[in-house]
Amino acid sequence: MEKQTDVDTLTQRPSWLALKEHHALFREKNLQSLFQEDPKRGERLTTSAAGLFLDYSKNRITEETLRLLTVLAREQELPEQIDRMFRGEKINTTEHRAVLHIALRAAREEVIVVDGENVVPGVYAVLDKMSSFVRKVHDGSWKGHTGKPVRNVINIGIGGSDLGPVMAFEALRHYSRREMTFRFISNIDGTDFTEATRDLDPAETLFIVCSKTFTTLETMTNASTARAWLKASLGSDAAIARHFVAVSTNQEEVQRFGINPENMFGFWDWVGGRYSMDSSIGLSTMLAIGPERFLEMLSGFRKMDHHFRSAPLEQNLPVILGLLSFWENSFFGCGTRGIFPYDQYLKRFPAYLQQLTMESNGKHVTKSGTRVNYDTGPIFWGEPGTNGQHSFYQLIHQGTRIIPSDLIGFLHSLNPTGPHHTILVANLFAQSEALAFGRTAEQLRQEGVPESQIPHRVCEGNRPTNVILADRLTPETLGTLIALYEHSVFTQGTLWGIDSFDQWGVELGKILAKRIISELEAPKDPDLSHDSSTNALIRRFRNARKQD
Ligand code: F6P
User: Fold this and answer.
1) Counting atoms of ligand 1 from 1, which one is nearest the CA of 506?
2) Distance CA 492, CA 78 (A)
3) Which residues line ligand 1 (CB under 6 A)?
4) Concatenated DSSP letters for 266-313?
5) CA distance 34 to 483
6) Contact call for residues 386 and 305 (beta carbons, < 8 A)
7) Residue 158 Cα, ligand 1 centroid: separation in angstroms?
8) Burial of 131 (0-12, 13-18, 19+ CB in 10 A)
9) N-term to C-term CA, the chain
10) Which ligand 1 atom sits closest to the C-alpha of 281?
11) Angle CA(335)–CA(339)–CA(342) in degrees, nearest 5?
């Protein structure tokens, strides 16, 4: 049984108050002075695990900060919570579910019990079924309705059933089968479907309908349109069996849609959508990179899981990342975090992290239902470097808000091209340096900058960054990187005392949208009982349609 900690008094605890008092120190100290006082901190405040290196020295912390943060983490039972998650306890208390994405990448021989059942054999049964399907598609023995092999794969899903697959496809494109086309349809906007299918031959196209619930409006509407598109071209319902597979926990709905359960790849209610890209939700990833590389990706996750479970908090990479984000968010009031991968293949990584972090920690009550009196989940956002440097970095350097950022890079490029990689990495390092130390008025004067320009050119610095480096972007590295953030999210949620694994906030909009759909579609003008703004918007749409 999970012990309910006294999270509701968090901000009155001596450990929180000690952090608050400690925070006052940073009114006098900035990153410049911290480095002057402790010139070796750049070598010491670093840590490595599972092939990832983290330099966190350019954060507004000292070793004492970390010590105080770990005191609070221990009071919040972080080590015990980690253990509870790995043991399969129902730590998602509002949904009464275990949280076992770690079981998706467990070693075959591991035993993880939920409700009296070891779930690991089930995980491998699905992985084996995926591998066997993927091999058939790759060797051409899985044929479409007209006998043609599959050349195009379209993943239909949204949220966790889209962002993980599309991010992983982009991230691992280098390893993907270039003779195949991969596309992703998520938006209910018909444009997404139309553009994804317009140049494809239905006879060579396989749809993967990905939905944990198999009831999500956007996904089911897109899947129905796909079924109609296919039938219109291939002329028969029998074609569905050869061109549609499903990934879901809901066999009944999959069957109702017309997909044979034999062509369904299952997963479990103990995997949250945003934690599912390494489950069968990753079928498109496996089709792109093959089963062996998919297993390599899982081994990357596993390495970080093992580190998270076993390393002391003080050397634990996801814990440190989580504590820093907690510190900057709850004590410095930094409400956002920038994610800047210096790697074009990671272009969808910030979008993926947005769901992972914001759906997990965007909560306003503690696990016991009390309103928090501190800020929780920061807003995550970002773009790949160096593109962002020529757009929004201005605000990070000289704006009035402090935006802590993670800069992610690789020592080796997958596409060595003349000087490109050196320039790319130099920019990453330069941004971290510039953000931390800026440029003073004195330095500018010495450089001969005219006095009138000095206020405009001063960069105050003192902007925190983490630098995360790995050797090169491989499937294994990607797995490690994702697990790093998954566990850092859990660390922060545990400190805030919130349930990082539910998402009740998304429901209201869905309920209202259903009602409004029927009001927009009603043959006669309906009686509207929304607020005056919503009523007027509905009338405006209906009037526009009447003129069509
Ligand atoms: O609406 C939010 C959400 O439930 C996410 O948590 C989830 O990843 C997404 O919708 C898709 O859900 P499903 O996989 O059930 O279609």
Assistant:
1) 1
2) 10
3) 158-161, 211-213, 216, 219, 273-274, 359, 503, 506
4) E--TTS-GGG-TTTGGGHHHHHHH-HHHHHHHHHHHHHHHHHHHHS-G
5) 31
6) no
7) 6
8) middle
9) 60
10) 14
11) 160
CA 160 – ligand 1 centroid, Å: 6
Yes or no: say if 392 and 28 are a contact pair by the CB < 8 Å rule. Answer: no
Q: pTM score, two decimals?
A: 0.96
Strand partners, 266: 248
Under 8 Å between Cβ of 396 and 438: no
Residues 6 or more apart in contact with residue 25 via CB below 8 angstroms: 62
| 162 alpha carbon – ligand 1 mean position (Å) | 9
What are the two backbone dihedrals, phi and then psi, of residue 105, each rounded to the nearest 5 degrees? Answer: -125, 20
- So what's the pLDDT on residue 1? 41
Q: Could you identify the atom of ligand 1 that is nearest to the CA of residue 160?
A: 8
Q: What is the DSSP letter of 371?
A: B
Give the pLDDT confidence score for residue 268 in this predicted structure: 96
**The predicted structure's pLDDT at residue 547:** 83
Distance 157 CA to ligand 1 centre (A): 8
Burial class (CB in 10 A: 0-12, 13-18, 19+), 262: exposed
Q: For the segment 449-462, what is each residue's pLDDT rounded down to a tens digit?
A: 999 999 999 999 99
Report pLDDT for 2: 44
- Pocket perturbation via mutation, ligand 1, pick of 99, 158, 185, 508 by most ligand atoms within 8 A of CB: 158
Q: Work out which ligand 1 atom sits closest to the CA atom of 216.
A: 16
Whose CA is closest to atom 8 on ligand 1? 160
Q: How far apart are CA 129 and CA 262, in angstroms?
A: 10
* Residues in the chain where the model's pLDDT stays below 70: 1-8
Residue-level pLDDT at 548: 81
| Residue 185 CA, ligand 1 centroid: distance in Å | 14
Bridge partners, residue 143, by sequence: 149
Residue minimizing CA distance to atom 1 of ligand 1: 506
Task: Name 156's bridge partners.
Answer: 185, 209
- Residue spans of alpha helices (H) in 4-54: 14-24, 31-37, 41-44
Catalytically active residues, by annotation:
359, 390, 510
Q: For 354, how many CA atoms within 13 A lie in the half-sphere containing its CB?
A: 15
